[in-house]
Structure prediction request, 286 residues.
Amino acid sequence: MQQDLPATARFLIGGELPVCRLGFGTMRLTGPGSFGWPEDREEAQRLLRELPALGIDLIDTADAYGPDIADHQLRAALHPYPKGMVIATKGGVTRPSRDRWVPLGRPEYLFQQVRKSLEILGLDVIDLWQLHRIDPKVPRDEQFDAVRQMRAEGLIRHAGLSEVTVADIEEAGRHFPVATVQNRYNLADRGHEAVLAHCESRGIGFIPWAPLASGGLASAEGAVRRIAAAHGVAPSAVALAWLLRRSPVMLPIPGTSKLKHARENIAALRLELSDEDQAALEKAGA
Ligand SMILES: NC(=O)c1ccc[n+]([C@@H]2O[C@H](COP(=O)([O-])OP(=O)(O)OC[C@H]3O[C@@H](n4cnc5c(N)ncnc54)[C@H](OP(=O)(O)O)[C@@H]3O)[C@@H](O)[C@H]2O)c1
Prediction:
């Protein structure tokens, strides 16, 4: 944890579990298409080992990354995890091949996967487990009830959803308290504004995936680049600082395979965008 950060840099997941609002996503620590091992495993290990020193204590992962490879890397680099480190994982999506991500929400599969995640990550309880996708082929009640049961059995502490609507969140909320929602959102893609507003009104953490538009914003021209140059930071830090300022429930999890890029991204936490910067970015993104 970074002691010198303002209180606004932190968020309480489920109203009680503190994290720094800028996290890290592990999807890029796998092979192309998030399948298999990455070419440079050593760099992945160096990067992961450095995260605590950078002040990152929220790591987003999923059994589908690799599959399992991101989690094996996490364990190898960081277990036993530093005190206060929150590993947020996801289950409910299978990887039959490099280019396929197939939801599977049958309760027995979700239970198998949560137990496998505990084993591979080396945890007694998963602080935050997110249903990676609601499976349209399985009754929704059964999927949500499986999550309720995981909490009741103490396998997971908090639960979240991914790629959902406000109606989905309300429906799931009748089975378990929805602590986080993970939807695609960034400066250039704001399709989920209504979900963000709902999360903000309920104190639900909103985890925008692809916060750098899958890398596009790291090489953006125009306002992003100009503001980055003015503040002496990388464009990626500007895109992330815009997100952090956009809402107090925003918890971006930028992904990278390079330690140098992780260092550039963390600069967003201390970057104070002016009202003019924020407005110019808002306009450019739209
Ligand atoms: N819930 C879901 O359905 C879902 C879907 C996708 C992702 N996710 C989660 O969200 C996380 C983030 O999403 P993402 O990784 O797809 O997209 P992202 O964070 O928007 O962008 C990652 C890309 O940006 C590049 N990058 C990062 N920092 C950079 C920097 N400082 N300078 C230049 N390039 C930089 C990375 O390349 P380098 O490796 O070269 O740095 C990588 O190609 C994932 O890791 C995963 O945990 C969730």
Summary: The first helix runs from residue 41 to 54.
